[in-house]
Design a protein that fits this description.
Layout (H helix, E strand, L loop, with lengths): L1 H7 L5 E6 L14 H19 L3 E5 L12 H14 L7 E4 L4 H11 L3 E4 L5 E3 L2 E3 L3 H10 L6 E5 L5 E3 L5 H11 L4 E4 L10 H11 L4 E3 L8 H4 L5 E4 L15 H14 L3
Length: 269
């Protein structure tokens, strides 16, 4: 658990999501607002999360729907531009998530100074995006090749918007990934964005991976975090901190403050 303290400065850190509006090349990209509009929205959400007391933030191209399994150059450039321009305003540790491309995420993280990435690195899935076959071996060799070994890798082991082709129990998958794929942390998800992870899944995964950090990856809310956090080492939270709890809305500073108040109490602070 030492790297959690080293990076985040607390036990059971809360990572708040900065969901970027659709980027150039995405079907939902708003050309009238352009990159300036994307930057301003990201800035507002960043400051709302930081003022509310989150322990870290993660930038993600959440609205680049329909999702693709490989990020194109426009997506990578836009993510790097936004994070780079906000770099001086980021006061907490930060990460990068480019859906659903580990190589692209590692590249942007390394270029911008991010401390971690979250991606689906392992498994084979029947997904909304088609047959999905990521490669941890390829991604971690790329991390080594570009000199990004300091970028921590959080493995989402039960991908949203998808079902595994195999039938191994989740705990068995977690045990295998922890042994064979060199993750810095394991993320456990519900079936899609904002859908809660099951406490029994968290508990089962934590039992088999030992000291490897386990994160709640989706669906953390004010009304369930007390039930979920005891079984995890951290939480990644996005939708429930938005206005009205809707993923595409701006971050609500009051929701952030009240969520963090619950977490601090659970952490005994």
């Amino acid at each position: 658990m030492s790297w959690l303290r080293e990076v985040f400065g607390v036990s059971k850190p809360v990572i708040g999501m900065v969901h970027l509006p659709a980027l150039p090349s995405s079907p939902l990209y708003d050309a009238t607002q352009g990159m300036e509009g994307i930057l301003e929205r990201a800035r507002q959400d960043l400051h709302a999360l930081q003022s509310g007391g989150v322990d870290a933030v993660m930038f993600c191209n959440e609205n680049d729907r329909p999702y693709a399994l490989r990020a194109d150059p426009a997506t990578v450039a836009a993510m790097a531009a936004v994070v780079g321009q906000l770099r001086a305003e980021i006061r907490v540790p930060f990460g990068v998530d480019i859906l659903w491309d580990p190589i692209a995420a590692l590249a942007v993280a390394h270029a911008t100074g991010a401390q971690f990435v979250r991606e689906v690195f392992t498994g084979v899935y029947a997904s909304d995006m088609g047959l999905w076959n990521p490669s941890a071996g390829e991604a971690l060799r790329y991390r080594r090749a570009i000199g990004a070994e300091k970028v921590r890798v959080l493995f989402n082991i039960n991908a949203e918007f998808a079902a595994p082709v195999g039938s191994r129990p989740l705990a068995e998958v977690a045990r295998s990934v922890a042994f064979s794929s060199l993750p810095d942390g394991i993320c456990v998800s519900g079936p899609m964005t904002s859908m809660p992870v099951r406490a029994e899944d968290l508990r089962a995964v934590k039992e088999v991976v030992g000291s490897l950090p386990v994160f709640i990856n989706t669906g953390a809310r004010h009304d369930n975090i007390a039930d979920l956090l005891p079984h995890a080492d951290g939480v990644i939270v996005g939708s429930s901190l938005k206005v009205d709890g809707i993923t595409w809305n701006p971050v609500d500073p009051e929701r952030v403050r009240s969520f963090m108040a619950i977490v601090r109490q659970l952490r005994g602070e």
